[in-house]
Amino acid sequence: MDRWLRNTNVVKILALVIGILLWxxxxxxxxxxxxxxxxxxxxxxxxxxxxxxxxxxxxxxVQTMDPAEVIVTLSGKEAAxxxxxxxKYSVEVDLTNLGKGERIVPLTPVGFPSGxxxxxSPSNAKVVIDExxxxxxxxxxxxxxxxxxxxxxxxxxxxxxKVTVTLPSGSIDAVESVRAEVNVEKAQSAVSNKAKLVAYDxxxxxxxxxxxxxxxxxxxxxxxxPFTTVxxxxxxxxxxxxxxxxxSLVQNVDKVTVFGTQDVLNRLEFYEGPNINLADLKEEKEYxxxxxxxxxxxxxxxxxxxxxxxxxxxASATKNLEQxxxxxxxxxxxxxxxxxxPETGKINFVAEGAPAILDKVKxxxxxxxxxxxxxxxxRYEIPVSWNLPTFIKKSTPQDFKATVEIxxxx
Length: 410
Description:
Helices cover 11% and strands 52% of the residues. The protein has 410 residues and is mainly beta. Strands 2, 5, 8, 11, 12, 14 and 15 form a seven-stranded mixed β-sheet that branches. The protein has a five-stranded mixed β-sheet with strand order 6-4-1-3-7. A five-stranded mixed β-sheet has the order 30-28-25-27-31. This is CdaR family protein.
């Protein structure tokens, strides 16, 4: 041993080994992992942790919260830190006992396991709380698209037709409408759909903060032919037999809705109903007729499709109407036309009708007409045609004629 120690090379080698061991021991003590102390405690930092407000969302609304995200610093042994990182943690701000207004509220870490020290930075948040208000609004449906050719979309049916809109109290007055869209492109039958509602302000901008209850409604859009509603005109022909007249005619439908193409509907001023031949009513009584309204002029559907007509037939009466003026129609502007016989230009007329109607007829209600259309100068005997009130007729036999003279103007 003494011989080795006297050997300088051996001493140098031993000194080198001892020096390396001392260096390793020193560095193992001083150079621990970052964030780790001599007793094994480490620190871990979690950034961008969202702050969760805890409040009654049915009554209040968090208008602003600053900060919305924080940094969480964890201290503990490595095993505890790993457990904490896997846990369902959060940072909460408790607003449950606070009302409307601005507050500085402490932030609370929640869900971290024991054995870990938690520090939140910053430790407080500035929160502005607003109350919520409700407003009942009607539902508006915007129908988009065009149905199949020849059809049109009717008025949408919405269930429910009113909903409740909830907004912060400062915004509730800004809501203008609650709307949804239903597309009827190329539809051939009624479109039934569920539609999501959206609240809009007075400028037409979507109100993102609005809560709508219910948020979805059921909508049905009828798809029909174009239609229009016009008066129903019965077509009367013939006259009751001699000695009888119509005292009254009452129909239970005076207007009818006509379905068809738009070009057909544009030409309709009235709709001609069923034909009633008064000559078939041969006795004194009240008739009740249930008649089909015929489809005419390319109409595809009628509503209603039937009409009930009550006609009262009574015994006729007569009435003398004296000095009825003769009216000339169709005269040429380049000719002078005048009645020469009768010289007075007036004739007497015996009217026939139901007593109640006849009592109200006056001379001015009757027109005696002479038609001289296309007649050259000369003298002509012309039959008189009559324009009479409804259900009034001439009492037979009455064959009226008058003489007119047509001459060129001087």
